[in-house]
Amino acid sequence: MVEFTNAPIEIAFNDYSRPGWTTYPVGPLRNDFGALYKELERHGNPHWASTEASPTMGPSGGRHALTTKDYLTRHFDYGATVIVFNTGATSKELSKSLTEGVWGTDAVNAYRTFLNPGK
Q1: Other beta carbons within 10 Å of 48
Q2: Are the C-beta atoms of residues 28 and 72 closer than 8 Å to each other?
Q3: Sheet of 20-22: strands edge to edge?
């Protein structure tokens, strides 16, 4: 996991803050967030945050079947209380892909459905 987060997962846990990670659906987090859930459980399942995120990771991440709803579920159904979406990137192409993943019609509709499940 170090190669993805630039730091060991466990250093996010301390007595002074809640844990948080970058949670792009690539690398070790492409198929699930199991590595994060395991460490969260080990520390009593505290509330946590995704401190940099997008349901898509642009052209370099390839196309995959993860929907915005599934992405939100990976967070909020497992104790996340904050997701900080990112649309800034090192290239126009990647920024465009991130922006579409965060603010595109499909994403906005997924937010509405996820946050208002009875409607």
Answers
A1: 24
A2: no
A3: 20-22, 48-53, 80-85
First and final C-alpha spacing in the chain: 39
Per-residue pLDDT of 11-69, as tens digits, reads 899 999 999 999 988 888 888 999 999 999 999 999 999 988 888 875 555 555 578 99
Report d(CA 101, CA 109) in Å as an integer.
12
Half-sphere exposure of 86 toward its Cβ, with a 13 Å CA cutoff?
A: 16
Confirm if 49 and 12 have CB atoms less than 8 A apart: no
Q: 3-state DSSP helix/strand/coil percent for the chain, to nearest 5?
A: 45, 15, 40
CB 41 within 8 A of CB 10: no
DSSP letter (8 states) at residue 44: T
Give the model confidence (pLDDT) of 45-56 as tens digits.
Answer: 999 999 888 888
| Domain locations in the chain as residue ranges | 2-115
56 contacts 98 by C-beta, under 8 angstroms:
yes
| Both tokens assigned to 64 | 């995959």
At residue 19, what is the residue type? P
